[in-house]
Structures are given as structure tokens and as C-alpha cells.
Amino acid sequence: CFGFPLSIFFIVINEFCERFSYYGMKAVLTLYFARFLHWEENFATAIYHTFVALCYLTPILGAIIADSWLGKFKTILYLSIVYAIGQAVLSVGSINDLTDHNQDGSPDTIAVNIALSMIGLVLIALGTGGIKPCVSAFGGDQFEDDQEKQRSTFFSLFYLSINAGSLLSTLITPTIRASQCGIHTKQECYPLAFGVPAVLMAVALVVFVIGSKMYKKVKPQGNVMLEVSKCVGFAIKNRFRHRSKEFPKREHWLDWASEKYDEQLIAQIKMVLRVLFLYIPLPMFWAVFDQQGSRWTLQATSMNGDFGFQIQPDQMQIVNPILIVIMVPVVDSVLYPLIKKCKLNFTPLKKMTVGMFLGSMAFVAAALVQVQIDNSYPVFPAAGQAQIKLINLGAAPATVHFQPQLQTVDVGPNNETGYMTFETSKLQSLNIISANQNKTESLKLQERQRYTLAFKWVPGDINSTWIEDNVTSKPKDGKNLVRFINNLPFTVNVTMGDMDFGELDPLSVSNYSIIQNPGWSHTIKASMPQYTCTVGSKEFGYGGAYTISLDDCVENKLTITHFEDIAPNTVHMAWQIPQYFLLTCAEVLFSVTGLEFSYSQAPSNMKSVLQAGWLLTVAVGNIIVLIVAGASAIDKQWAEYVLFAALLLVVCIIFAIMASFYTYIDPNEIEAQFSKEEKEEGKKDQDGNEKEAETDSRL
Q: Region Disordered: what ranges (predicted)?
């Protein structure tokens, strides 16, 4: 088809579906741990990075199985089945109603959900990691030797399908996750958010199987990684056996393998080890880079996602693939040629060093954003303190004196104050004066508590009610808290949307209820036996708490006032874009250049060893994050960002020093030299054989 083997179209579609499945599931994973399983943020981060590390360890296993035993086709087929089962198990494990026998909205046996989720993730890690080194190589196998141009086009299509799957899934699955579903109670729809990737993985498997008769299946030819491991192991063992001084030293410790392995293989392994030595500092970059899906997503939950339309915290990850698609061609066609014109020697290792520096700066930017978020948080009362907020529901202004002579506050009609902090041991009473009426309230406050005093002047009296807020932190996950106070002279039943706040007597207050959908307006109804009054609420922000007073009802139109108890998130998600931009620049300079450099410095038959080493650095980087998240005593998130930035900066300096001692080589020249020597030796042997034959004939 258009000069291409028909089979490669099945492989490209398979890759698109598989990448959609993986990135879609991964995008919502951290919030699933934190919100559904109710794990603490550090623990959720640690488990997330354990999963990612496992995804980058298993490719080595997949490559060995494919090259030494099953072949690429069977390896992809069997591990895709494991993969699809894992996605299905994870989706089932996220069903809230699975063990919710009492129908209260929470699983009665959360251990069942956790067990199924962990089994699913292990199967997914085995599947996605196992097929990772096989699919692109299997696609390359479909072409003949004279189809170099078509093969190159295939790899472009292949990586386009990866980016397309990543972009679409990171956009779609968080939207599905934010929707409401459930049998008994409506909650965030994780079963569907994981179910759609599971269906896409099943589609990927079916598409791959449909093309099975068209595939060119190359038989397993042995895995070079095993050969390299055996050679290195033999060299170490042989060196240990001959460690006494009576044996002469050899130029390189790998030369101790020369008794069993040929010189060319040993020389090739030496080239690979020189590159692998440079890989030692690289995990620190991946420790920073892969926190986009964990720490940065959790950071976004404390931010305002209103872009004129609602952006979910886990959708911010889409900034990275969008910027990659834009920046790779810009850097290759504009930036690098410009640097070359300026006659600057911007070598691959220098590019990687700059990439690491930019990664460090990305976390400095994240720390600055986190400081702004922390500064926007409300201050709650400490030990020995309490806080009081005043709401004047009347039509007359009021003055409140806190006794003994602590503070005096004026409150306008239908207005409020912020929370005021007092020492519980000092504050004894308060006195309200409004429209020549006077009322004194004796106080006995509990420490670390917030209170609201709502009052109103009525002819001849001041009516008031004390409310214990029972809120000790800002609402998480961008959700809002709403309560109602009845400022009408009669009892009403209050509903908002499908939420029932119950009957409220005059000047009584409902409990706070969680509003799931930030940025939405809701219909408020106040029902009486004779008639019902309605009005639309304002659009609530992200992470706020509100008291809504029901003030009047004229011609079935309800009049309300919104009082803000806790301000919504004020730091906009757009402030994350600079850190994503810096990290994407770092990725372009570090990751793309790093793979290109590695391949240029390795012999043709050793590229899979370097790919395994590269993937191993990603796994180790994620292990670093889970160690820090699990063991760190840092309680401020901005300080942890600064820690990672500082560590990466130190590693960047170490890498720059190591790179300055590296000498670039051309493996093709070295291999050609060996080939030349082999030919010369062969010629000598042939000449020797001819002379022997001539002597024999003379005899």
C-alpha cells in the first residue's frame, strides 16, 4: 500500500491505541490514589513512582524474552493480553460500589479495591514495559533491505502515533474522571476513566491479531545483552582468579575476558561502558522530569483552573506533549543552525548539560509557584487561640465590642468581617450595639476552633446565633463547602441542585456540604407549604467555603447573599506553564540529544544494550523520588522542590566535569579497522596455506 508493507498500518494503529491506554490511565493515577483510595500525598507519590519505575525496568525482561525465546510477535501478543487484563482489573478495582454494602458512598472493604488496583498496575507494568522494546523493532522488521526510505517514514508515523495517543488521552481521561457516576452515590468516575483505556488496549490487541497473517516474523537470534553480561562477568571472575602479583597487569580490566571472547566483542563492550559510565548521573534528571504526573498534578489541585472553561488538574500534563510537538522542529531547524552560524561548539554532551540546568530551573519555578499557593492559604487558629467571624444579617449597621477592651469592630448592614484571632484565655464576652439596641454574649471558646456569630436587629431586640464552623483546613481537590443560614421569618426547606440541606428554622444554619463541581452555578430552592422560591447561585471558585443567607422571597424569586468563609484558589493554573516550558526545553536538549549521542557512540550491534541502560536510568530516577517522598522530613512542598532543584544542579556540575574528559569516537571506523585486520590475517593465512601446498607438491 503506497510502497509500504500493509502490516505496518496495523502496527501503527496498535501503537496509537496502546499509548492512549497507557497515558490515559497514568494521567489520572495520582488523583486516584489521593482522592479515591485516600492515601496521603507522599504515599500516593511514592506508589506512583514505584509503578513508573517498574514500567521502565520490565523492558529489559521483554527484550530478553523476545530475542532469546519467543520472538517479537509472540512476546507482543502474550504481554498485550497481560496488559489488557491489567487495565480491566484496575478499572474494576476503582468501582466504588464494589464493597459498598451499606450504600453510604464509601467502600466497606477498601482493601479489596487496593488489592485489585495493585494487581492491575503490576500487570500493566509487565505489559507496557515488556512490549516497549519490541513494537518499534517489529515494525522495522517488516521492511526489506532496499526500503530504507519507507522504513524511515514508518518510524516518523510510529512516533506521531505515540504523541497523538498521549495528547488525546491526557485531554480526554481527566474529563471522564471529573464526571459523576455510581450506582448508589455519584462520585468522580474512575471506573470509566480507567475503563476507556482498558477498551483501547483491547482494541490494540484485536488490531494486532488481525494483521498476524501479514507480518514478517523474524526468528529469535539471541540477545546481545546476555552476551555482554556473560563477557563482563567472565572478565571480573578471571581477574579475581589472577589477582596475585605473579600475573602481569592488563591495559583494561575487560582484557581479562580475552581467553574466551574475541577482541572485537571486547572492544565493542569497552565503547559501550564508556557511554554507560556517563549515564551514572542521569537518573537525577528523570527524578525531576517524571514528577509532572505526581507532585505537579497535586500542585495543580490547589490552583484555579478557570480558563473560560474548566481545566482539570491532571489535564495540565498535556502542556508537555503540546510543547514537544512545537519545540522539536523549532530547535532542530532554527536554534541549532543559529548556534552553528555563531561558530559555537554546542556538542551533544553540552546540550545535555544545559538540559539538566533547565530542569533544575523548572523546579525553582515550581517552588516559586508553590510559595504563592501557600501564601494564599487561610491562617487557622493555633494552640490557645480561636477565631471569630461576624455576619450582620440585619438592615442596620452594628458595632461589636470584644471584652475586656480587646477590640471594637463595625459591621455594615448585610455584611461580614474576616476571621479575627483571639487568645481564648483573654476573651470573655462581646457586646453588640445596633439601632440603639444592646446585647451582650458571654463566651467560652475552645482553642483551635473557628466560630461565626450571625446576628440581626429586629424592632426591640437583637437576634443572634453562634455557629461552630468545624473546618480546620482549606477544602482539598478544588471542591467547595457550602452552608445556608435562614434569614427569613419562617421555616423553609432548602435544596441546591440535587442536594438537600433540610429544614431551617429562622436564623438557624445548615452543616457544610461538599460541592463537587467547581466553576458551576446551581439552582437554590427554598420551599414552604404554600409556594417555592428559586434563584441561581453564583459560580463557585475552586477550594472555597461559603455561607449563603436566604434573605427574601418576592413573587417566587429568592434573594440571597453570598458570604465567603474561605477564599477560593487564587493562583491560576496558567502559572504552571513556565515550569512546563522550562522542563520541556530540558527534555528536548537532554532526552532527544542523549539518545542520539548514545547511538552515535555505540557499535551497531550494541544499541539495544544502550537502550536498556537508558531505560534503567529512568527507573532509577523514579526510585529516587519514591525514596525522597517516603523518607523526607520536609513538610513544606516548596522546600522539596528546591531540594530537587539543588540536587539536579549539583549533578549537572558533576556531569559537565565528566563530559569534559570524554573523547568522541566513531564506532564505524573502529569496526572497519577490525574488519581490515581480519581480512589481512585471512590473506596471510591464505598465503601461508599456498606456500605449504607448494612445498608439499615439490616434495
A: 675-699
Compute the distance between CA of residue 427 and CA of residue 405 in angstroms, rounded to an integer: 9
Instruction: Centre a 10 Å sphere on the Cβ of residue 339 and count the other Cβ atoms it contains.
Output: 14
Return d(Cα 67, Cα 585) in angstroms, integer. Answer: 35
Q: How far apart are the first and last CA of the chain?
A: 67
Classified as helix, coil or strand, 407 is: strand
Alpha carbon distances (Å) from 679 to 259, 269, 305, 688: 22, 22, 68, 14
Cα distance between residue 497 and residue 537, in whole Å? 10
CA 370, chain centre distance (Å) = 17
What's the pLDDT tens digit per position in 250-291?
877 787 788 788 787 788 888 888 888 888 999 999 999 999
| Dist CA 498 CA 522 (whole Å) | 9
**pLDDT at residue 697 is higher than 70:** no
Average pLDDT score over residue span 546-563: 90
Q: Residue 658 contacts by C-beta under 8 Å, 6 or more apart in sequence?
A: 277, 278, 280, 281
pLDDT, tens digit (0-9, with 9 covering 90-100), for 49-79:
999 999 999 988 888 888 778 888 888 899 9
Judge whether 1-221 and 385-566 match in fold.
Answer: no
Mean pLDDT of 114-131: 93
Contact status, residue 422 vs residue 406, Cβ threshold 8 Å: yes
Are 307 and 160 within 8 A, CB to CB?
no
Amino acid at 18: E
| Cell triple for 396 | 442596620
CATH number for domain 1-221, candidates 3.40.50.1360, 1.20.1250.20, 3.40.220.10, 2.30.42.10: 1.20.1250.20
Please list the residues that pair with 50 across neighbouring strands.
Answer: none
Residue with cell 495493585: 118
Q: How far apart are CA 541 and CA 303, in angstroms?
A: 10
Closest CA to 540 of 486, 499, 578: 499
Pick the CATH number of 281-376+570-666 from 3.10.129.10, 1.20.1250.20, 3.40.190.10, 3.90.640.10: 1.20.1250.20
The rounded distance, in Å, linking the Cα atoms of 218 and 621 is 34
Question: How would DSSP label each residue in 201-267?
Answer: HHHHHHHHHHTGGG---PPP---HHHHHHHHHHHHHHHHHHT-STTSPP-SSGGGGGTTTS-HHHHH
Q: Which residues pair with 389 in a beta bridge?
A: 452
Q: What is the pLDDT of residue 690?
A: 57
Question: Which residue type does 591 have?
Answer: S
Judge whether 459 and 528 are in contact, CB under 8 Å. Answer: no
State the pairing for strand pair 449-458/461-468. Answer: antiparallel
Pairing of strands 449-458, 385-392: parallel
The CA-based angle 574-193-304, given to 5 degrees, is: 20
Where exactly are the structural domains of the chain?
1-221, 223-263, 281-376+570-666, 385-566
Q: Which of 304-318, 449-463, 627-641 has the highest mean pLDDT?
A: 449-463
Q: pTM higher than 0.85 for the full model?
A: no
The burial of 514, by beta-carbon neighbours within 10 Å (0-12 exposed, 13-18 middle, 19 or more buried), is given as exposed
DSSP codes of every residue in 83-109: HHHHHHHHHHHT-GGGS-TT-SSS-S-
| Upstream peptide bond of 404 is cis (omega within 30 degrees of 0) | yes
Does domain 385-566 fall under CATH 1.10.10.10? My reply is no
